[in-house]
Amino acid sequence: MFCRSNPSKLCKLLCINCANRCKKESLLFLFLIVIIFSIQKISRYTFEDSRQLLLCIDTNIPAVTPPSADGLIMTPNLRPNEWKSFNATSSNEKINRRIFFHETSGRNQLSLQQCCAVESAAKHNPDRPVQLFIRPLKDGCLGDGRQSSSHPSALFHNPPWLDVLSHYPNVAAILLNEDHYFSGTPLQDWYRAGQWLESQHEVAHLSDYIRILTLYKGGGLYLDTDILTLKPYQGDVFRNCLVYGSSRLEVFSNGVMHLERGHWLSAEIVRLLAAEYDPEAYAYHGPALVSEVMGRMCGVVAGNSKTNQCEDVKLLSDRFFYPIEAPFSDAIFNENENKTDVKTLIKIRKAYGLHLWNSLAYVHELVRIDSNQIFSILARQHCPLTVSRASDFLS
Q1: How many whole angstroms separate alpha carbon 229 and alpha carbon 234?
Q2: How confident is the model at residue 389 (pLDDT cuts 50, 70, 90)?
Q3: What is the pLDDT of residue 315?
């Protein structure tokens, strides 16, 4: 205002100097913002890289440097640096016939029920490859990977679950190199952004994402680690199929799915998972998303399986894998004063698999493997080697 009312040469110079100073300060401010953003970005990627510098295996042996592969095939009584590499893209022609599981807790261990689930699948399907993908140990790394070749304790001794599963030639336990596994896929950015690591549903969300990614990369039959296999999965009915999670036929389970490599359904779900992530939503990225896609793409109406317009996706009723629904799952573990629930047992034995509802274990009775619990009766028949090592799991 002063310069406008006094348009002298001095005043003009002052105004020019003021403008230049403001411009310099603005540029400095923008430069500082760029520096801060770059530091944050570098820190984030340094954190991401540090997560992959080592693969943690066990609290008693040194970690190993990740291979340039999707994972390592865990082999008893060998040093981890002697384990063979695994790559999903190099799998054989049986890839669509494989049965696979993902253990995503980061404990690098299986419970008795989980081991029983994997053993039962291998026992009843000896002609099908069974792959168990294990997330590396989240905490408790010992030493660094350079020690693994010479450290006297570097020999990987059998945990009970690996000892059991190593008796089945069709089973491979694979320690995943997660960053490599997601690299180059539509879900790479989701994984590396790390927002899921801050979610209270971290384990569930990783599980939802990685199971679909495995179907997308190679196809096969996915089973949750609490699906006890009761019969062989033979015939065309188990090819490109989804399973309802309850008798209401409202929502599809993502705990049992078969899709061949290159199927449009796995590609569509992967596309949606990459496009939108909600760290607060527990079930959206799993059953809800599968059901939404089937409704939109195939015209499936909740409660009516006959509305399915996609001939290349079969819909199986709950009786195949979910004969016991969640509110009644305690019946699987009840002892009932030494009286087996025969009616429930007969219903279960008509199924091909039994969902054990491990997520509700806190309301179930403890497993007593020599008891008349329905689970124990079934376990003695369908996972006998796991049962023989029960004391090692329960101790």
Answers
A1: 12
A2: very high
A3: 98
Three-state secondary structure call for residue 27: helix
Element counts in the chain: helices (H) and strands (E) = 13, 11
pLDDT at 89: 73
3-state secondary structure (DSSP) of residue 283: coil
Task: Flag whether pLDDT at 356 surpasses 80.
Answer: yes
For the chain, what percentages of helix, strand and coil (3-state, to nearest 5) are there? 50, 15, 40
Tokens of 35: 């520096």
CA distances from 133 to 33, 210, 265 (A): 42, 10, 22
Is pTM beyond 0.85? Reply is no
Instruction: Give the three-state DSSP class for 290.
Output: helix
Beta bridge partners of 78: 156
CB 132 within 8 A of CB 172: yes
Half-sphere exposure (Cβ direction) of 323: Cα atoms closer than 13 Å: 20
> Which residues touch 217 (CB under 8 Å, ≥6 apart)?
88, 89, 185, 261
Model pLDDT, residue 76: 85
**pLDDT tens digits for range 125-155:** 999 999 999 998 876 565 544 433 333 334 4
Backbone angles phi, psi at 278, to 5 degrees: -120, 105
Q: Give the Å distances, CA to CA, from 55 to 70, 73, 303.
A: 12, 13, 45
Q: How far is the CA of 224 from the CAs of 24, 103, 321, in angstroms?
A: 60, 9, 11
Strands 241-244 and 252-259: antiparallel
φ, ψ of residue 330 to 5 degrees: the values are: -65, -20
pLDDT value of position 177: 93
Contact between 328 and 247 (Cβ < 8 Å) = no
pLDDT in tens, 11-28: 544 455 555 555 555 556
336: left (phi over 0), alpha (psi -120 to 50) or beta: left
Neighbouring CB atoms inside 10 A of 257's CB total 24
Q: What angle do CA 345, 351, 352 make, to 5 degrees?
A: 130
